[in-house]
Write a structure and sequence with these properties.
Number of helices: 14
CATH class of the domain at 429-697: Alpha Beta
Helix content: 10-25%
Radius of gyration: 25 Å
Largest sheet: 8 strands, mixed
CATH topology of the domain at 429-697: Rossmann fold
CATH superfamily of the domain at 429-697: Alpha/Beta hydrolase fold, catalytic domain
CATH architecture of the domain at 429-697: 3-Layer(aba) Sandwich
Mean pLDDT: 94
Shape: globular
Number of strands: 37
Structural class: alpha+beta
Low-confidence stretches: none
Strand content: 25-35%
């Protein structure tokens, strides 16, 4: 049986002149000029583009037809590790406790509450019922008003991240007024429950304005939206929230390197917002009001890994900040949570998390665990005047555990352990932390998970996962998905490369902009170290990454195609130079601090052109590659993986297949249901197994 022939994309050379440099893009035609409408309505996609994408999907389906039984098996295994009628640990707040639960077999949860003193459940939102008959349904923020009379939720029904916000009167059960349209997926009630603050997304899908809308129970809440704040800089993101002690409404403005926060007193929610500390390029800060003082987390004054400051001023401008928890290089303060009598800060040292509890008097104690690699996440709670906080502990071998922690008595109460219905024996597995030497001498952490009896002679296939952008750390967490490969004798490895914050904020700074190539060489160094230590072998490693991690996949495919037996690039950001030069795209101006601005900066242009995966494709023997995307994805637009695959095929000198799978009904996160999403993961894993086993040569 011969292999099917791949689609052959037509070439329509498009000349681009920029800063005195000229490039030609043969596949620019794949970008629909009407892409903004396509985000909102995928049916608006131009016919020739749709025809090409559908042909690509058909080719991928045909090529992987022999893996369909394996995909079904992988999906069944992963689904079998999920408790179908699961529920969250209730979060107490005043007279109620709030939680989410799944009914047996449901893709989406039910949001509910019950009286704290005992009593029947009250359903707040039934996502499963709301999602019925819809190809895509995803809830963003969902929360009750402080006085417990209203419930609001933001929903996206096409994957474009344009949300509708609905508000329900809990006394009558009625949804009030007209929903808010073209919203961001986040919002905040004012502490007096009289107003809803929300963020508007413009025609380019950027959050640019904050509005408030009346939210009064028992009345039509659809009154006039009042503009509260408008951001002039299209490179900034917006967020809204409230202080932990409910004293202020806070508007967050910022990008990857600069922050500005505005405050509105809760006593007067209609007041004009006041800037706390004006933005200064390179200075990031977050703040919260702790009863009688402000606590500020910042990298100001050279505190690369952040410090905590305090201020007792009414408006906490930087001149009023006083150092409290001093900066220590290598101890990255990732965040904090304030309670009436305690403050909990989260820290990361050498890719391991810990929590530190501080009293108002300044006494401290640490919460930590002993495994070689683990993740510890502060979940917090809904109440301020309490001694209880909540955190989640997990490791590659240990399912998630939810603990309530009494900050006064230091008592830990295990509230829930993630249940694995099909069974999980942690003693079968081993997790290890390795350190790979980078070309410049840095030690790059690698977390590996494998069966205890897996031989370390290079015979085991390896999946090496990486991201390495925006300061996002790759937590050594528990995954019901990864076990399906590990149980088949694979070694799962996570590379904690530069560009992430795994070893501190300096680790991020050392892998962005002019130092971006450190991200790629770190990942390659991790693969080479795994090979040197017997964990893998050249040609038996599957590289895996998504979004900016997909850019990593494209870069390492160009740099070292010989290392990989397979590459899986999920929603890959591979057309970096064109995207960073297109100011109409949602994330372009906000991401210039990360990559540079190739429109105005010739050095940035040359630097990006030097590694942009799409631009650096050239004739060579590429390994088997699977690229995936979503038609309504506003973050990594569908044409990026489509163009990349077309150019890879054109330049492929080897026989390995290059595949593309576009979800025609979803966005950046793929399918919205908790089980449907697993089908996409099963496809990725089946491809990895098929490619490493060279299934494509056996058809």
């Amino acid at each position: 049986m011969s292999l099917p022939s791949p689609p052959k994309a037509r070439k329509a050379p498009h000349r681009i002149e920029q800063l005195g440099r000229v490039r030609t893009d043969d596949y620019a035609w794949m970008k629909d000029d009407n892409w903004q409408q396509v985000l909102r309505d995928p049916k608006a996609l131009r016919a020739d583009v749709r025809e090409h994408l559908e042909a690509e999907n058909a080719y991928t389906k045909a090529m992987l037809a022999g893996t369909e039984a394996l995909q079904a098996e992988l999906f069944a295994e992963m689904k079998g590790r999920i408790k179908e009628d699961d529920s969250s640990v209730p979060a107490p707040d005043g007279p109620w406790e709030y939680y989410a639960r799944y009914e047996l077999g449901a893709e989406h949860p039910v949001h509910a509450r019950r009286p704290r003193s005992g009593g029947p459940e009250e359903v707040l939102l039934d996502e499963q019922a709301q999602a019925k008959g819809k190809a895509y349904y995803q809830v963003g923020a969902a929360s009750h008003s402080p006085d417990h009379t209203l419930y609001a939720w933001a929903v996206d029904e096409q994957g474009s991240e344009y949300f509708q916000i609905h508000v329900k009167d809990l006394a009558t059960g009625e949804t009030l007024g007209t929903p808010i349209e073209s919203a961001y997926g986040d919002f905040a009630f004012s502490p007096d429950s009289q107003w809803l603050f929300w963020i508007w997304r413009d025609e380019n899908a950027r959050p640019s304005k904050v509005f408030r809308r009346p939210a009064r129970p028992g009345k039509d809440w659809g009154g006039e939206d009042v503009l509260v704040y408008e951001e002039a800089d299209e490179g900034m993101f917006l967020g809204v929230g409230t202080a932990s002690d409910d004293s202020f409404i806070l508007i967050h403005v910022g990008n990857q390197e600069t922050t500005e926060i505005l405050m509105i007193p809760a006593s007067d929610p209609t007041a004009r917002p006041v800037i706390t500390e004006p933005r200064q390029v390179g200075v990031k800060y977050s703040l919260d009001h702790w009863t009688d003082r402000w606590v500020i987390r910042t990298n100001a004054d050279g505190a690369v890994d952040f410090k905590l400051c305090v201020s007792v001023a009414g408006v906490p401008a930087k001149a009023t900040w006083r150092d409290w928890i001093a900066h220590q290089p290598g101890r990255y303060i990732t965040g904090f949570a304030a309670y009436a009598g305690h403050l909990v800060r989260a820290e990361r040292v050498n890719a391991l998390d810990r929590l530190v509890v501080t009293t108002r008097a300044g006494d401290e104690h640490e919460v930590a665990f002993d495994e070689e690699a683990y993740a510890l996440n502060l979940e917090g709670g809904l109440e301020y005047d309490t001694t209880l906080t909540r955190f989640v502990y997990q490791s590659p071998t240990t399912p998630r555990q939810w603990f309530d922690y009494d900050m006064a008595t230091r008592e830990r109460t295990l509230r829930k352990t993630q249940e694995i219905p099909s069974g999980h024996d942690a003693s079968k597995y081993v997790a290890r932390r390795l350190y790979a030497p980078a070309p410049d001498g840095e030690q790059v952490p690698v977390t590996v998970l494998m069966l205890k009896d897996t031989p370390l002679d290079g015979s085991a296939p390896v999946l090496l996962y990486g991201y390495g952008s925006y300061g996002h750390a790759m937590e050594p967490s528990f995954s019901i998905r990864n076990l399906s490969l590990v149980d088949r004798g694979w070694i799962w490895a996570t590379a904690h490369i530069r560009g992430g914050s795994d070893k501190g904020w300096g680790w991020f700074l050392d892998g962005r902009r002019e130092k971006k190539t450190n991200t790629f060489t770190d990942f390659i160094a991790c693969a080479e170290h795994l090979i040197a230590e017997g964990y893998g072998a050249t040609g038996k490693i599957a590289a895996y990454g998504g979004s900016a991690g997909g850019m990593l996949m494209g870069a390492v495919a160009n740099l070292r195609p010989d290392l990989w037996g397979a590459i899986i690039a999920a929603v890959p950001f591979v057309d970096v130079l064109n995207t960073m030069s297109d100011t109409s795209l949602p994330l372009t101006p906000p991401e210039w601090p990360e990559w540079g601005n190739p429109i105005e900066d010739a050095e940035a242009y040359d630097r990006i052109a030097g590694y942009s995966p799409y631009d650096r494709v050239e004739p060579k023997a590429y390994p088997p590659i699977l690229a995936t995307g979503g038609l309504s994805d506003p973050r990594v637009t569908y044409w990026e993986p489509a163009k990349w695959v077309a150019k890879l095929r054109e330049n492929q000198t080897g026989a390995a297949p290059i595949l593309l799978k576009i979800n025609m009904e979803a966005g950046h996160g793929g399918a919205s249901g908790r089980f449907d999403f697993l089908k996409e993961i099963a496809l990725d894993y089946a491809f990895a197994i098929w490619a490493i086993d060279e299934g494509w040569t056996k058809a």
